[in-house]
Design a protein that fits this description.
Layout lengths: L2 H11 L16 E5 L2 E8 L2 E6 L2 H4 L8 H11 L13 H13 L4 E7 L2 H18 L7 E5 L8 H5 L19 E3 L12 H14 L3 E6 L3 E2 L5 E2 L3 H12 L3 E5 L23 E4 L11 E6 H8 L16 H15 L3 H16 L8 E7 L2 E6 L5 H10 L2 E2 L6 E4 L7 H19 L1
Parallel strand pairs: 3-15, 5-6, 5-7, 7-10, 10-11
Antiparallel strand pairs: 1-2, 2-3, 4-12, 8-9, 11-12, 13-14, 14-16
The structure holds pyridoxal-5'-phosphate.
Protein name: Adenosylmethionine-8-amino-7-oxononanoate aminotransferase
Family: Belongs to the class-III pyridoxal-phosphate-dependent aminotransferase family. BioA subfamily.
GO molecular function: adenosylmethionine-8-amino-7-oxononanoate transaminase activity; pyridoxal phosphate binding
Amino acid sequence: MTPSALLDLDRRHVWHPYAPMPGLDEPLLVESAAGVRLTLAQPVRGHRELIDGMSSWWAAIHGYRHPVLDRAAADQLGRMSHVMFGGLTHEPGVRLAKRLVDMTPEGLEHVFLADSGSVSVEVAVKMCLQYWRSRGRHRKTRLLTWRGGYHGDTWHPMSVCDPEGGMHHLWSGTLPGQVFAPAPPSGFDAEPDAAYVSELRGLVRRHAEELAAVIVEPVVQGAGGMRFHSPAYLRVLREACDEHDVLLVLDEIATGFGRTGTLFAAGHADVTPDVLCVGKALTGGYLTMAATLCSTRVAEGISRGELPVLAHGPTFMANPLAAAVADASIGLLLEQDWAGEVRRLERGLSEGLEPARTVPGVRDVRVLGAIGVVQLDRPVDLVAASQAAIREGVWLRPFRDTVYTMPPYVTPDEDVARVSAAVCAAVAASVG
Ligand SMILES: *Cc1c(COP(=O)(O)O)cnc(C)c1O
């Protein structure tokens, strides 16, 4: 089919994320991708190749068509793409579970392999609610989170997304009502705010009787606004949860696998949650898969309860193809100096985004690990900003009031510089 025929059909029949039907902006037609470059079916603003500044939403940490991951997928394809996980098991699923147990914070021993990040959060919530139910604490069914978060688009995850970003007013009465703390004060390096800490503790204490769990994204709030906060607040939450019999769930779907400079963002605070969600970069961006890990206390609590099973089992649970690629992707990550590569990107982004600091209309420039964010004092002009980045030969997808990038770890220095220049150009196009 010709590019224009495809785009015409796309417009008529295909939903895109967070879009009306038909869509507002015409998507770019991608023909293939390799390394850190997307190849378009036809040139746009003089470019057929774009450097990917988004890692396909945090996922493609090793870039595209990595030979090791391609081979893992092809080898597994030669054995089986999928078998059901009820009553059957397989080496890719077992190996991946063991790897996740080994690399995540101490104490997380049991792994539920789910098929997307949102589902892994659903499973985490079900684990927590069922744990308390099994212990006879039937009132403990609510969740506490802080504003500015994002945990996915299915129903329970939506209930803990930022009320404004998650459009809770649209769903009032239908979404479960959760307990919200104010957003954590900004700044990775900022001293913890004493008033905020006592407010957080007070909320956990006051609601302890009805709280099953606290769920937050550690250190970096992603799709809720790309905000960074002090790891100290995670220690506060851990203590408050321990003190008041509440479980702690960390959602590391965006932050996992090295993105913030530690293997998991919980590592900045040396905190072990009771339940941990990972996804996005889990398969190196190849296939959809996520995982929910829990402690032995949670697993035993559930398994000795009135319904002594975790009643969840997606059709494609532990999909062997995805599991084999995930295992290879984690192997690839751990056998290289991933921390050095992330630090290299951190330096490149810090340097490259510096000029944006003095641009009128820019509120903040922040970099942590391989994440670079320029926040404006107004909403980004999505079309103008994306077009400006494309003119620089870079793919970015700004949202709300931020132009941001989280490039693949393999991005060479000269491409990091081009991505940074594109962020600055996108910013200029938005405020100009
Ligand atoms: C992306 C994301 C999710 C949802 O994952 P999906 O795979 O899109 O369902 C949940 N939590 C966080 C922190 C995320 O970044």
